[in-house]
Amino acid sequence: MGIDCRYCHNTVERAAHAAIPPTQTCMNCHEQVKTESLRLRKVRESYKTGEPIEWVRVHQLPDYAYFNHSPHVAAGVGCATCHGRVDKMEVVEMDQPLSMGWCLDCHRNPEPNLRPLDQVTNMNWDPTQEAYDPKRDPARKRQVNPPLHCSGCHR
Is 114 helix (H, G, I), strand (E, B) or coil? Predict the structure, then answer.
């Protein structure tokens, strides 16, 4: 459908976690779209009863790892960089390992993973098609300098 990630995950720009939406948010669209889908049965039931859905967390980090979405979004790391093309997934699954080594690779060399700030949630933005140099972007108020020390992620 091309819906912006922030419609459902509306705290991602200002909070550590990308909020899980209440059922009403789902039903804003699904009262009209895919109204008979079996996959949405839990959503419809939750909406009728008022009982929240027990979502399955897909992107699970260990308890000892600290992660905050908001600085990543503010830096211009696109949602698809870590989560993959969720818009093309039949069922959302882990696209990247989100391991310490994987994260450190990005922290050591963030530029290939950055995009214009207004393209962070654009699933169609293609870095191979768009020449982008974050150092020359006038919209950036400061350059990206992610932490490499242990306490950046282990608190």
Answer: strand
Task: Compute, in degrees rounded to 10, the torsion defined by CA atoms 146, 135, 12, 25.
Answer: -160
Residues 73, 147 within the same domain: yes
Name residue 38's amino acid.
Answer: L
Q: What is the CA radius of gyration of the chain?
A: 17
Look up residue 117 and give its amino acid. L
> Which amino acid is present at 141?
K
Q: Which domain holds residue 100?
A: 69-152
Segment holding 42, helix H or strand E: helix 41-49
Tell me 120's DSSP state: T
Residue 74's pLDDT band, with cuts at 50, 70 and 90, is very high
Cα–Cα distance between 86 and 93 in angstroms, integer? 8
Taking residues 24-52, report their average pLDDT: 95
In whole angstroms, give the CA distance from residue 74 to residue 8. 18
